[in-house]
Amino acid sequence: MSRTTATNQPDQTEKQTEDQGVCYAVIVAAGRGERAGVENGPKQYRRLGGKAVLAHTASAFLNHPKIDGVICVIHADDGDLYTSAMASLGDHGKLLPPCTGGATRQQSVFAGLKALEALAPDHVLIHDAARPFVDANTVSRTRAALDTHAAVLPVLAVTDTLKRGDAEGRVEATVDRTNLFAAQTPQAFNFPIILDAHKAAAARDDINFTDDAALAEWAYIPVHLVEGGARNTKLTTVADMSEAERLMDTMVPDIRVGHGYDTHQQVSGDHVWLCGVRLDHTHGLSGHSDADVGLHALTDALLSAICDGDIGEHFPPSDPQWKGARSDTFLRFASERVRRAGGTITHIDVTLICEAPKIGPHRDRMRAAISDIADLPTDRVAVKATTNEQIGFVGRGEGIVALATATVVMGHQAK
Ligand code: MG
């Protein structure tokens, strides 16, 4: 088990190992959770920081780049609760329709696995809905360990001294805590192997496991341990819910502002591309692609917001396939990259600096083009322009400059 620094960001090293199999997450949300109090309904639908507990939990998986799809297993009575809980997530393409669970946790997990069977994923992560504070690193570690193990369990070493008590409430013995761990979820498995184990367990009426690692043990599948998350606790009691509210108050929105700059030289020609719009002009702009400085600066701003290199790294000018390419390809790529990293683009601002052509008459077409390519509403896209007062290389008409900022909201992160 390796110790890593806990942050909310996926391991950067993951980028080097590209997708090794399709991985789905099953979120078990069919329980009644009566220990958390019955008067306010099942705990997975209680609101925490303005969002249902289940929506927080699902977001952690929906926003993780290594998770290809998420299915929630819900109680037959909870369809309406589920619909209103998940409404805050919007139209998320990775979220599958929910399926109905059974009378026990084991039956509910089995229902979720059977619902995924037709999709034939390579891997599955099984997670409790009542663990909304699961962090991206714990998801990354459990998923990564599946490359070399069939079953993976995130755990925390037990730090309290353990006592065994007797029926009279007296200490009987002190238990050696060496090699003792507290089990968490997500528990991660090779999909066909855990599905087969669940099928075998379902055929027996004397088996009712409270987690899937125990079922794997029963089926003689070796379970590999990885480090869990310190905050990844399970909300069980009324006190846990109050503690979760307190923890939520300590979270701040993770808002990123990325900045980009680009310039291209004016050369002979009869048109320029600026912010996705073709304008007739007395000159052209030199560049390997269509030389759209506005979209290049904006692509860099988006990549900067998620600390994901720059346009030159992803689209090297030395690569002949980008010769004459339309720059909307670059912007669409960066926007998708932001979304895959779990970000939502909330605002884009581009400034063009040139003596000519005049930008004002074309501003709204440029905003519409960016809105279309980056897939956000036009009223969140600003385009403005200024001359350089005939000073310097821009003032002499030797080139055009663009500056851009992009604002991206990544969800919540600990202070
Ligand atoms: Mg450029």
Structure description:
The chain is an alpha/beta fold and 415 residues long. It contains 12 helices and 19 strands. It has helices spanning 53-62, 79-86, 105-117, 136-145, 191-202, 212-218, 238-249, 293-305, 311-314, 328-340, 363-374, 392-395, and strands at residues 23-29, 47-48, 51-52, 69-74, 99-100, 123-128, 151-157, 162-165, 171-175, 181-183, 187-190, 224-227, 251-268, 271-274, 277-280, 283-285, 344-353, 381-386, 399-414. The strands form 5 sheets. Strands 1, 4, 5, 6, 7, 10, 11 and 12 form an 8-stranded mixed β-sheet that branches. Strands 16-13-19-17-18 form a 5-stranded mixed β-sheet. It is elongated. The two termini are 27 Å apart. Magnesium ion binds at residues 262, 264, 287, 293, 296. Magnesium ion is lined by residues 262, 264, 287, 293, 296.
What is the fold's blueprint, element by element?
Layout: E1 23-29, E2 47-48, E3 51-52, H1 53-62, E4 69-74, H2 79-86, E5 99-100, H3 105-117, E6 123-128, H4 136-145, E7 151-157, E8 162-165, E9 171-175, E10 181-183, E11 187-190, H5 191-202, H6 212-218, E12 224-227, H7 238-249, E13 251-268, E14 271-274, E15 277-280, E16 283-285, H8 293-305, H9 311-314, H10 328-340, E17 344-353, H11 363-374, E18 381-386, H12 392-395, E19 399-414
Parallel strand pairs: 1-4, 1-6, 4-5, 7-12, 17-18
Antiparallel strand pairs: 2-3, 6-11, 7-10, 7-11, 8-9, 13-16, 13-19, 14-15, 17-19
Helix pairs in contact: 3-5, 8-10
